[in-house]
Amino acid sequence: MAGSSVVYHSLMWCCSILPRWRITCYKGWTSAHFASAASYTTFHENWKVKSSKDSRHRVTKLWHVGLFRNRVFYCTSSAGAWEVPLTSERYGVQRLPFSHVSDKDLAFFEHTVPGRVITDPDMLKPFNVDWLKMVRGCSKVLLKPRISGEVSEILRYCNERNLAVTPQGGNTGLVGGSVPVFDEIILSTALMNQVISFNGVSGILVCQAGCILETLNQYVEEQEFIMPLDLGAKGSCHIGGNVATNAGGIRLLRYGSLRGTVLGLEAVLANGRVLNCLTSLRKDNTGYDLKQLFIGSEGTLGVITAVSILCPRKPKAANVAFLGCGSFAHVLETFKVCKGMLGEILSAYEFLDDECMKLVQKHLKLNNPLTGEGSPFYVLIETSGSNAGHDEEKLNNFLEQVISSGLVIAGTLATDETKIKALWALRERITEALTHDGYVYKYDISLPVEKLYDLVCDTRARLGKSAKNVVGYGHLGDGNLHLNITADSYQQTLLNAIEPFVYEWTAKYQGSISAEHGLGFKKKQHIYYSKPDEAVELMQKVKAMLDPRGILNPYKTLPTQGSH
To answer: Where is the FAD-binding PCMH-type domain (predicted)?
Structure first.
């Protein structure tokens, strides 16, 4: 460790915080200095923490040592106090009758992707755990292909051998969809990170699935474009994973979902066949739109290996307003005024409650930019356009209106990049702050906007003192609530009080139990709260047709047949 310049947080601490950060280690700091969480925190606070577009690749290089050392790896939950309980034990899951990896299988993989097969148990640990530290598998093998042909060979072989496979991108998912449940082979897209082409006229980007979102955004920004989505985990999430989970994020209000911006994709099916639908056409009305099957399928129908995506022009002017509101009714009314007065330049409308603000202040030492006693609710509004003077005039008129009408208690405006990033950090790092508050029960809900915060209030009243914190924040512009409940540790009794209450409440108001995170492992059995039996049955038939042996990301997305 002393000789390395970059250490990926998730590799050391199983993603104890959002894995979009890196630490630059200076001379004298070795692995011994990180023997405890306290020493890690001291280091984290005393040295600069930087976002990095290349940290994942450098870690990959560090981890190529000793591929076949200690090949025997047993699935056990007694590895240490920091270890996350095995998913199979915590949730009582039974392993399906897949084959076990043999030495002959390892020899084939080494021949197919030479030098890119990882079997060392210590190296595999971070890939077996989600970054929220809620689920853990015990995979014995991690494969790192570089091209779709290698993915094809791997899946063809695994299908013949009945070996289960878990595709994995940046492993930033929130529902346990990107890590094994048992000993599934992990198929990482980390080395599939090449830009294939970019059209500077149309703004169409074609790239491999393992490209990191932030890296892509930096690439297209150099040519005066931006990516159509932006996420808190952009420093480590992969575009293929974004598409596979139909990730939403903070730009959806302006640019729409990936179902509209993804023009084409390439995917490898379970039997190894390559489905090339990598079109770069805005219009193509020939037959069924097959790419939509794979967008949001969470790796259960095929492994996405390349994507064609439409990028919007980079705005020439950007502004962020951070406002305090006295009630959620005022948050909603401010949104109505915002849409009417800002119109075409409105790019984001986010909200968070005062409990969220207290958490980022307490755990991350971020400052509330609004002085005084605080507000029950906060709103972050972003505008982006092509004329700075025009945008500033519209924004000032809007702020004057909402302040004079009493909808907004206080506010601040940022126009330079440093201040804009500081304001966005208050919203984007809430998830990180929650992980420092204890075990987190996370719910990603779509609801009619007028009902959005009622669920938080009702949940808070229901749980009382049994929960440490019950907070709400999210993308109000598209009706997406992130409801989070924290406790000192995982408690089954608390979970029983939360579920199915939250899902029943959501279904009562015709909402969705997963707005943008997907179903993964943790929510697959609850799909019936949002989808009718006929729809789920048809999904299962599609899965059976494309993956008859069920080797692709088993135990995820769809409920066990006969369990409803």
So the answer is: 134-314
Positive or negative: CA dihedral 223, 229, 234, 238:
negative
Taking each helix axis from N to C end, the angle separating 103-112 and 148-161, rounded to the nearest 10 degrees, works out to: 160
Instruction: Check whether 36 has a pLDDT greater than 80.
Output: no
- What token pair was written down for 67? 């591929």
Q: Are 276 and 265 in contact (CB under 8 A)?
A: no
Separation of alpha carbons 403 and 412, rounded Å: 11
- Alpha-carbon distance of 152 to 417, in angstroms, equals 43
Selection from 348, 522, 502, 366 nearest residue 432 by Cα? 366
pLDDT one-digit tens code per residue, 204-248:
999 999 999 999 999 999 999 999 999 888 999 999 999 999 998
DSSP-assigned letter for residue 429: T
Which domains does the chain show, CATH number per domain?
Answer: 87-188 (3.30.43.10), 195-310 (3.30.465.10), 317-437 (3.30.70.2190), 438-544 (3.30.70.2740)
pLDDT in tens, 505-550: 999 999 999 988 999 999 999 999 999 999 999 999 999 999 999 9
Give all strands of the β-sheet with 165-168 in edge-to-edge order. 117-118, 142-143, 185-188, 165-168
Beta bridge partners of 129: 136
Which residue pairs, CB below 8 angstroms and at least 24 apart, start in 4-11?
4/62, 5/58, 6/52, 6/55, 6/58, 6/59, 6/62, 7/59, 8/55, 8/56, 8/59, 8/126, 10/126, 10/131, 10/171, 10/236, 11/59, 11/63, 11/126
List pLDDT tens digits, range 164-208: 999 999 999 989 999 999 999 999 999 999 999 999 999 999 999
Q: What span, in angstroms and rounded, lies between the C-alpha atoms of 357 and 366? A: 9
Helices (H), 343-475: 354-364, 388-404, 417-428, 430-435, 454-463
Per the CB < 8 A criterion, the answer to whether 105 and 161 are in contact is yes
Length of the chain in terms of residues written: 564
Average pLDDT over residues 395-409: 95
Structure tokens at 553: 């990301």
